[in-house]
Each structure stands twice: as C-alpha cells, then as structure tokens.
Amino acid sequence: MKMIVGVFAVVLVAAGAAGGAMWWMKSQEAAPGAEKVAHAEPKKEKKSDKPAKYVTLDKVIVMLKRGPNETTTHYLSTDLVLATDEEGEKPTKEHLPLLRAVAVRSLSAYTLAEASTMSVEQYAAQLNKTFNASYASEEREKPFGEVMIGKLIVE
Prior knowledge:
This protein is an alpha+beta fold and 155 residues long. It is 58% helix and 21% strand. The chain is built from five helices and three strands, in the order αββααααβ. The protein has helices at 2-46, 86-94, 96-107, 112-117, 120-137, and strands spanning 52-63, 75-85, 146-154. Strands 1-2-3 form a three-stranded antiparallel beta sheet.
C-alpha cells in the first residue's frame, strides 16, 4: 500500500511540474505579444480621428553659405508640405510667410558640401526641430504636426 501511495505521489508531483512548466512557457510566449500591443497602443492614441490636411509652401530658395575655398554661389530649392488637421489648416496658411523665413534662416546655414550629403529625412528632421524651437521661443502653439519635403534641389 505504501508503494502505491509513493508511486501516486511521484506521478502527482511530476504532473504538477509538467503543468507548471507548460504554464510558464505559455506565459513567456504571451509576454512579447503583450509588449507589442502595449507599444502599439500609444501610436493609436497619437493619431487624430480628424482627416489630415496638407498645406504646401512652394519654392523656398536659399543661397547656401560659401565654403572656405568656394568662389561660386550655390542654391538649395525645396517645396515643403505641412501636415495638419482641419482646425490647423487656416492658421498654418496664415503662418506661411513666417515658416518661409524660418526655413530660409535654417537652410542657409549649410555649405554645398554639407547640403549635398544630407538626406531628405535629415532636412525634414532639421526643419521640424527648427519650427518647434521657433514656436516654443514665441510661446505659440504650432498649428501643424510635421513638415515634409515635397521637392529638394541642391545645385
């Protein structure tokens, strides 16, 4: 009788250990998926349910800064696209002269060598950073979300 109880106890402990191992393995598989959902949720919160509007700022032409040994003048021409929503469309259009001046001031600091090596994403990031700083220094709310590059020519 003691032998049967002993074998039953060993089988019961082994079954419990196997069940615990299966539960632990399932919980480890679910954890990465839960992290993905947790990371995906904030992105959904940032999206506006309002339709996107795009305001263009065409033909921003900038004379690039001359390098130490450069004798010729070089230019950068870009078209900017400002992403906003319906509420921000009108104020963004009203701010276009200011945005042009800020963009020219920012982009004219580059030499041809610097401007030629930058990617479109780098230009957009630099302009977004400059616009954010400009609105922050004036303590005004920025009426658009981000600026994108519609066209870029460096010559």
